[in-house]
Design goal:
With 349 residues, the protein is mostly beta strands. Helix content is 7%, strand content 40%.
């Protein structure tokens, strides 16, 4: 049975990332323009910069504005890292998920998706604990927020996004379990998308996706985006939300099939959003830059399967990408929604 990393890597071997300079009106050579409007996003950028390498499968980047650092994970490696421009790479959590003695039946025991909240907590999806947790970066004290739904343990929470009201939306595919859906540890019949409210109520929003993965909210929180890492259905979906978090149906919003069919490595995975609603979504060949209407603006060519991305830096204009065994950075002319602070961005319904 192919693993998630096998599926995400694609059929061919990974190529080397080209750290090129600017071309064609100041747009970096690593950026493939599909809509002329996207040139402004990358004009003057210095191109991709490799910050670190040597990971098994890097994931979950999240920027901490209080400490001016990036956190990210190596899920199979069961560690989390911290990166700063001054100090470079440091181990932040070891293990990031569970201790080695607790990994029986698990194929990825580490933490996966991360989110640094306006409240100072680092939120994490813990494959090994099969839970959504939060952690104080200074003390490393953790709290488990949710690990069961209607009496059944989650599969392996994968990625999350925190809304302005404190609700957490998260995905729960089976990637952390040996055998995936065939795992004897699997208690859930479905691989779901969930909402955890601030008062601790957990509700399942969707159960029809085979491999729900990355998740994001629009700036006004009227749309929920969910990526599916399924080679048979490599789509990004979206669903409407009302002011109370109630949702409408999922609709296919962006299809990466033609890029996957061309032999590009990777599948839809993590997403992040800029303050103007532009979506940066990992997929075959790198990171897709998409308009709020789902139009393809550009693609950042990382040369390898890319798991996730997040905005950070002192001004919120650096796009950090966890690309298989590497951590990459690209300056862009956009500010990350999470960096800016979601509460300030939300508009009235």
């Amino acid at each position: 049975m192919p693993t998630r990393r096998d599926m995400l890597r694609g059929l061919g071997g990974a190529t080397i990332v080209s750290m090129t300079g600017c071309r064609d009106g100041g747009v970096p050579g690593d950026v493939e323009i599909h809509d002329p409007a996207a040139r402004a996003l990358f004009s003057g950028s210095t191109g991709l910069r490799q910050l670190a390498d040597g990971f098994v499968w890097s994931e979950g980047p999240a920027w901490d504005r209080e400490r001016n650092c990036l956190y990210f994970t190596d899920v199979p490696g069961n560690r989390a890292f911290r990166w700063t421009d001054a100090a470079g790479l440091e181990v932040f959590l070891d293990p990031s998920g569970v201790e080695a003695a607790q990994t029986t039946g698990l194929r990825e025991a580490g933490a996966n998706g991360l989110w640094f909240g306006d409240d100072g907590w680092l939120y994490l999806c813990n494959h090994g604990m099969r839970a959504v947790q939060r952690l104080r970066p200074d003390t490393l004290v953790r709290e488990t927020l949710v690990d069961v739904y209607e009496g059944q343990r989650f599969n392996s929470p994968n990625d999350l996004v925190r809304a302005s009201d404190g609700s957490i939306y998260f995905t729960d595919p089976p990637y952390g379990l040996e055998g995936l859906d065939a795992s004897p540890l699997k208690e859930m019949e479905s691989n779901g998308v969930y909402r955890l409210t601030r008062d601790g109520r957990c509700e399942r929003l969707f159960d029809q996706l085979g491999f729900p993965n990355g998740i994001a909210l629009s700036p006004d929180e009227r749309w929920l985006y969910v990526a599916q890492s399924d080679p048979a259905a490599p789509y990004i979906f979206r669903a409407p939300l009302d002011a109370d978090g109630l949702h409408g149906p999922l609709e296919r919003w962006f299809d990466t099939s033609e890029f996957l069919a061309a032999g590009e490595p990777g599948l839809p995975d993590g997403l992040c959003v800029s303050t103007d609603g532009t979506i940066f979504a990992t997929g075959p060949g790198g990171v897709f830059v998409l308009s709020p209407e789902g139009g393809l603006l550009a693609r950042i060519r990382t040369g390898r399967a890319t798991a996730n991305c997040a905005f950070g830096g002192e001004d919120g204009r650096s796009l950090f990408m966890t690309a298989h065994d590497r951590l990459l950075q690209l300056p862009v002319n956009a500010v990350g929604l999470q960096w800016q602070g979601r509460t300030a961005m939300r508009t009235a319904p």
